[in-house]
Specification:
heterodimer; A: 113 residues; mainly beta; Immunoglobulin-like; seven-stranded mixed β-sheet; four-stranded antiparallel β-sheet; 50% strand; B: 118 residues; six-stranded mixed β-sheet
Chain lengths: 113, 118
Amino acid sequence: AAGVIQSPRHLIKEKRETATLKCYPIPRHDTVYWYQQGPGQDPQFLISFYEKMQSDKGSIPDRFSAQQFSDYHSELNMSSLELGDSALYFCASSLARGGEKLFFGSGTQLSVL
Amino acid sequence: AQTVTQSQPEMSVQEAETVTLSCTYDTSESDYYLFWYKQPPSRQMILVIRQEAYKQQNATENRFSVNFQKAAKSFSLKISDSQLGDAAMYFCAYRSIYAETGANNLFFGTGTRLTVIP
């Protein structure tokens, strides 16, 4: 069965650079979530989209932005990268806003040097 | 706000034995979902088991079962016949069913690292 696809798997950037992470949800899933997991930490919710509209916002820095496109894939744009942005970024998708399991992608490991 | 607490940072179990991981949560809601996710060294986040709060029957998935105590706000995970492949970080997570309180995301506990001893 198709799963949540994230690209790239690994990304190395330098401070103050920009990064774009992509997420392709499971087919027919209409909700996408972004999470950030620092080393040795639990995942922290960043932002989510339902039917291409932002539905919830968590601890996402102002330097980050995201959107969901007409084909339901989502992109997380990160600017003015800082060393503390180094983390594993997960995307998850679900079929509906509530009451459904979240399925996670394999994550994008971002390293900021 | 919902909080999820995992009081055991690390646990170990002998292969083929049974281990129970603890999780408590705090909420004022009556209906919600609880999950256990497994994160092996590959760091893939894998759903292990799911429980709806309105269901009294404890969820079971093969060797994995939960002990859901709604009044005590407790949601423990029991792994029977532990296997080497069960070694991972286990996260307990809470999800509201109400959009107004953030139904769109999971609240995670801090995790329990499980070691399986051969």
